[in-house]
Specification:
The chain is α/β, with parallel strands linked by helices. It folds into 2 domains: 16-43 and 297-410, Lyase, Ornithine Decarboxylase, Chain A, domain 1; 112-288, TIM Barrel, CATH 3.20.20.10. Helix content is 28%, strand content 25%. The chain has helices spanning 28-35, 45-58, 75-82, 93-100, 118-127, 136-149, 186-196, 214-231, 261-278, 290-293, 325-328; strands at residues 16-17, 20-23, 26-27, 40-43, 64-68, 87-90, 109-111, 130-133, 154-160, 170-171, 181-182, 199-205, 208-209, 241-243, 283-288, 297-309, 312-317, 341-343, 352-358, 367-375, 382-385, 407-410. The strands form 4 sheets. Strands 4, 16, 17, 18, 19, 20, 21 and 22 form an 8-stranded mixed β-sheet that branches. An 8-stranded parallel β-barrel has the order 5-6-7-8-9-12-14-15, surrounded by 5 helices. The protein has a 3-stranded antiparallel β-sheet with strand order 1-2-3. Helix 3 links the parallel strand 5 and strand 6 (87-90). The chain is elongated, with a radius of gyration of 23 Å. The protein starts with 15 loop residues before the first strand and ends with a strand. The chain binds pyridoxal-5'-phosphate. Residues 68, 70-71, 89, 112, 206, 209-210, 246, 287-291, 390 line the site of pyridoxal-5'-phosphate.
């Protein structure tokens, strides 16, 4: 193997003792006994806490940090996050139910996403959740629901900016998009909000996801703050909430480096100081999903078969793409790359071999590792996939091939 080939960044979240990966302080084999089955997802409470604390150190003190629940909506995780972050951003009535079960004040919960149904709108209005408006039609639907149920709605305008978040894994702003209202159309929408007498809160600008380049994030944040200041001239009332999105990425693949958050925080502090001059009442918010929870979770499967086919070794595990679509390379990746993986009961073992790890599904897409060098594993050993705290279980087609469900635990 070429020693200069890019490697996976060392996962720093989990330690190992006596060849066992530790989750919290529990050795993996013991945790698996506690859970009672494989496959399962395990999320580390302490790691979530440390992550948010570290982020706060890097960010301006007056910046609000929201958790975007779609990254990991497990109720126990969301309950824990409620003690750490300043608010929640959600994208369905299902997520809203989980959020409202936590102690998070409803003033700090917002609901974004295209295609909100009338029922979802009235639920959010009744709850007092801020609705981020995604189209002119949605605004009219909100007004109609307010009339039916006799309550007023808190609304913010989600802006589809003219700029894009550069070097982003998934672009969600700029150009023609189903998300938000094109910035050119925002003045007219603001006028309509005023005419309808809705409770205007501010703006939401979300340009993309999974970005590891500090310069791109800094640029998008500066442009978002400028755009908000500019459009605020048309606002029916002072901007109270200004959500400038997130997009902070985590390293998944060989060669990926962690995002330089201190650099982002420093630049944001100066940009926010400028914005304060024109928007003194605005609470400035970033919303993060993956960055807060992604590295705090692992997916654990067990080897159920081992075979050699024409010179290549295959480990066949009881988990696969039906629980973890992203690790199989089928969740938005253009070229399949391996997630970081370990044999969780053979940590540090030096008897290595090159293996393919596949799941039990009858499709060639069900790959977890393609020719990875790992400690030699046998039937019964644990395959651990790191960086699995976000877009794992709920972002996977768990019904495919009628396999048993995975469990999720917070440790
Ligand atoms: C998906 C999404 C997020 C979270 O994205 P991450 O990459 O997980 O941080 C935040 N805001 C909105 C509007 C989203 O759609």
């Amino acid at each position: 193997m070429n020693s200069t080939a890019p490697k996976h960044a060392n996962p720093t979240t989990f330690n190992a003792v006596n060849n066992q990966l530790l989750i919290g302080d529990t050795p993996l084999t013991q945790l698996a006994l506690r859970v009672g089955q494989t496959p399962f997802y395990a999320y580390d409470r302490q790691a979530l806490t440390q992550r948010v604390h570290r982020l706060r150190q890097a960010m301006p003190a007056d910046l609000k940090i929201h958790y975007a629940m779609k990254a990991n909506p497990m109720p126990a995780v969301v309950q824990h996050m409620a003690t750490l972050v300043d608010g929640f951003d959600l994208a369905s009535a299902g997520e809203m139910k989980v959020a409202l079960d936590t102690p998070m004040p409803v003033e700090n919960i917002s609901f974004a996403g295209p295609g909100k149904r009338p029922q979802e709108l009235s639920q959010a209005i009744a709850a007092g959740v801020t609705l981020n408006i995604e189209s002119a039609h949605e605004l009219e639907s909100i007004a109609k629901q307010c009339e039916y149920i006799g309550l007023n709605a808190k609304v913010a305008v989600r802006i589809n900016p003219a700029f894009e978040l550069k070097a982003s894994g998934m672009k969600m702003g700029g150009g023609a998009k189903q998300f938000g209202i094109d910035e050119e159309q925002v003045p007219a929408v603001l006028q309509r909000i005023k005419a309808l007498g809705l409770l205007f809160q501010g703006f939401h600008i979300y340009s993309g996801s999974q970005n590891l380049k500090a310069e791109s994030i800094i640029e998008a944040q500066q442009k978002s703050l400028q755009l908000a200041a500019c459009l605020s001239e048309h606002s029916p009332s002072p901007i109270r909430k200004l959500n400038i999105g997130g997009g902070f990425g985590i390293p998944y693949f060989p060669g990926d480096l962690p995002l330089a958050i201190d650099q982002v925080g420093e630049a944001l502090a100066s940009a926010m100081a400028l914005t304060r001059q024109s928007l003194p009442e605005a609470e400035i918010i970033i919303e993060l999903g993956r960055y807060l929870v992604g590295e705090a979770g692992i997916y654990v499967t067990r080897v159920i078969d081992k075979k050699v086919s024409r010179g290549q070794t295959f480990l066949i595990s009881d988990g696969g793409l039906h629980h973890h679509l992203a690790a199989s390379g089928n969740f938005g990746q253009v070229i399949r790359k391996n997630y970081p993986i370990a044999i969780g009961n053979k940590m540090g073992c030096e008897d290595l071999e090159i293996v393919n790890i596949v799941g039990p599904l009858c499709t060639p897409l069900d790959i977890l590792a393609d020719k990875m060098t790992l400690p030699k594993a046998e039937v019964g050993d644990f395959v651990v996939i790191y960086q699995s705290g976000a877009y794992g279980y709920t972002a996977s087609p768990s019904k495919f091939l009628s396999q048993p469900d995975a469990l999720e635990v917070l440790v």
